[in-house]
Specification:
- By secondary structure, the chain is an alpha+beta fold.
- It folds into two domains: about 5-120, no CATH class; about 135-205, no CATH class.
- The chain contains seven helices and eleven strands.
- It has helices at about 30-35, 55-65, 80-90, 100-105, 110-120, 165-175, 200-205, and strands at about 5-10, 20-25, 45-50, 75-80, 95, 135-140, 145-150, 155, 160-165, 190, 195.
């Protein structure tokens, strides 16, 4: 066994993809710097970093489980929700660490650029997706859990009006995960399609420029 660290990286310039990897030297910052080449406009962020008893074995298990979602056979990039990988690692994690921007060497300017990209992605409204008020959305982890669209970005979840991410976080925590944030569009679906995978109808794209 080789104790070490398993990490999950994401980049807002590569929506939908994450990088899964391991290190025995606690040098994930160096790995992130290597990835941030001139061809990548934004730096990578470490969304999850955990010490595990056998990092090589955990990484192999993750790569095996998500093999069908791999971007390329020779790369460690996967098109999956990072929470899916995190849920597996948490089963064996000895300690979970949170890395600050300073530790990740993300400058204030880079953080501002990252947050701007995030805010633009979150600005997508139900109307832009062609989902009118009254549409029922299904929780992807349990089809018996639903919410109903009641506003531009708000839903009615069990009699309370809230944002999609808040509703998803409640449902995820009820599954036993003590996470602090989730991206709502990854956890709610309409007609079998996650909202994060939906594209606006042609009319909405034209109207929105």
């Amino acid at each position: 066994m080789s104790e070490g660290f398993v990490y999950i990286l994401k980049n807002e310039a590569m929506p939908g993809y994450i990088k899964l990897g391991f290190t025995q030297q606690n040098d994930v910052e160096a790995r992130m710097r290597q990835l941030h080449t001139t061809g990548v406009p934004l730096p990578f962020e470490c969304t999850y970093f955990a010490r595990v008893p056998d990092c090589r074995r955990v990484e192999r298990a993750l790569h095996f489980v998500f093999a069908d979602d791999r971007a390329a056979a020779s790369r460690e990039f996967f098109r999956i929700d990072p929470d899916r990988a995190k849920a597996i690692v948490e089963l064996v994690a000895i300690e979970v660490e949170t890395l600050s921007d300073q530790q990740q060497q993300i400058t204030p300017e880079q953080r501002h650029a990252i947050e701007e990209v995030k805010s633009r992605a979150e600005a997508m409204t139900f109307e832009r997706l062609g989902l009118p008020i009254g549409t029922v959305l299904i929780f992807t982890k349990d089809p018996d859990v639903t919410c109903t669209i009641v506003g531009t970005r708000e839903v009615d979840f069990r009699g309370e009006v809230m944002r999609l991410s808040s509703a998803a976080l409640i449902a995820v925590r009820e599954m036993g995960y003590s996470w602090s944030t989730v991206r709502g569009s990854d956890y709610w679906a309409f007609d079998g399609v996650k909202l994060s995978a939906m594209t606006p109808p042609e009319s909405a794209r034209v109207e929105g420029g």
